[in-house]
Design a protein that fits this description.
By secondary structure, the protein is α+β, with helices and mostly antiparallel strands. It has helices spanning about 10-15, 20-30, 45-50, 60-65, 80-90, 105, 120-130, 140-145; strands at about 5-10, 35-40, 70-80, 115-120.
Length: about 150
């Protein structure tokens, strides 16, 4: 499988719960290496733009309010099949449905405050990486995976 890059967020509930280290450790334990990390509080415009695809959904306003309620950790993760692997480690959107041992099963509060975001496909990974890390290459280099 190819070495890929994907985009991850530790949401405000994860930062508030004090599980930044444990979330990153879980990623590292499955071969997802952070190649860029930023901690910041999102503006309303940044959160609305990031979740624009959900604009028509009934939970959109609440989601933006939640995502701007405190600092988040923005990350680019790299590894073999990183996009699908990240989604596996995260678990289902609703923590009640998330498989045991996944990040959301272990740390999420509810379907909204679900601790992590992860890109769901190669196209969204590229778009989301460049949205928050315009300076970072969206593609992994062969040598990076071998270091
Ligand atoms: P995902 O994060 O697993 O990809 P999406 O369907 O893309 O899930 O939804 C984006 C985010 O919107 C979720 O992670 C969650 O924070 C929030 N969300 C999704 N569905 C609901 C809902 O039914 N009620 C409240 N918030 C929701
Ligand atoms: Mg999604």
């Amino acid at each position: 499988m190819a070495i890929e890059r994907t985009f991850s967020i530790i949401k405000p509930d994860g930062v508030e719960k004090g599980v930044i280290g444990r979330v990153i450790a879980r990623f590292e334990s499955v071969g997802l290496k952070p190649v860029a990390i930023k901690l910041k509080r999102l503006s309303q415009a940044e959160a609305e733009g990031f979740y624009a695809v959900h604009k028509a959904r009934p939970f959109f306003a609440d989601l933006v309010k939640f995502m701007t309620s405190g600092p988040v950790v923005l990350m680019v993760l790299e590894g073999e099949g990183a996009i699908a692997k990240n989604r596996e480690v995260m678990g289902a959107t609703d923590p009640k449905k998330a498989a045991p041992g996944t990040l959301r099963a272990d740390f999420a509060t509810d379907i909204e405050k679900n601790t992590v975001h992860g890109s769901d496909a190669p196209e969204t990974a590229k778009g989301e990486i460049s949205y928050f890390f315009p300076e970072i290459d969206v593609h992994a280099y062969e040598w990076v995976g071998k270091r």
